[in-house]
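To fix ideas, we reproduce below one chain and its tokenised fold.
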Amino acid sequence: MPILSYPSSPLILTLLLLLLSFPILFIFFLAPSLLPPRRLTITTTDDLDDLSLFQKAISLSQSSTPAKSHHRPSTKSRLGSTSTFRPKIAFLFLTNSDLYFLPLWHLFFNQTHPNLYNIYIHADPSIPITPPTGVFADKIIPSKRTQRSSPTLVSAARRLLATALLHDPANAYFTLTSQHCIPLHSFNHLYKFLFNIRKLQKNLDYLSYIEILSHSPILWDRYNARGENVMTPEVGFDQFRVGSQFFTLSRTHALKVIEDRRLWRKFKLPCINVESCYPEEHYFPTLLSMVDLEGCSKYTLTRVNWTDSVNGHPHTYHPPEVSSELIHRLRESNSSYSYMFARKFSPDCLSPLMEIANSVIFKD
């Protein structure tokens, strides 16, 4: 009987080694670019950390006088900072990259007294970000990783709200924005709009400006993104709402958000259908429509162009599109007030925007 012999050619051995090493090469080099990224989830540790922050903010807010009037005597907060209790706007920047339009925002804030606003930045710690300068310096709060199509964007926004509530009792409005947003009016125009429009309704709290939509062809798929009927009984389909990720909330509603435990138990669940999973567009509109729909305008102050969206992203404006006509057009609204902010702008729009900043954007 002939004895079987195996080839010992170096070429054959090399081929065998390549075959054996292919799975390792795939896992470490090819898989990350070919396979969808692993979805971030809300861990118990994350939840407990946030709960501790929320409880501190709720406790302080309950012992502080709400910032409703325009002038109150100076006092000292528990954090040691002096506050006049003149109502302020808290700007909450949620970002996973550099704040591209920092120079434009600096012009926006330089128009007014620093006692009329506060700035808070939630920056994804897993991504290197150039330290902000000027009025943005040292404004990054303790942050955690964020990811699109996951509840981490909701927890980041809640973390921003709680930090702002805890930091300054004079914060009366809380405006969530991003690195792709720009202002469409001067700060003084925004301030007068938010705090003067309520003069004839002195017995009511400030109105929140958040988009709340109850009818949309995508609503059913979004509702079942975590599994069929998983949201019940806390949220029935008839209670489920959709809206813009960016809003301006009153202090009362900001407190309602961080006080919530019931709805958050459902919205923090991981999604099965990631393509229909956008918790940040549903949690806030759903919660506020359930607890105080009449206290919400149902409109957002941030203009977004969805006419040619790609993969769930709105239209991105590029330098050739930037003009005074674009700014005036973006301000136009179907409601009784104009838009105050707009997105989404590419980083290279900074230069043309700065050219028309004083003559157009901040000239009201």
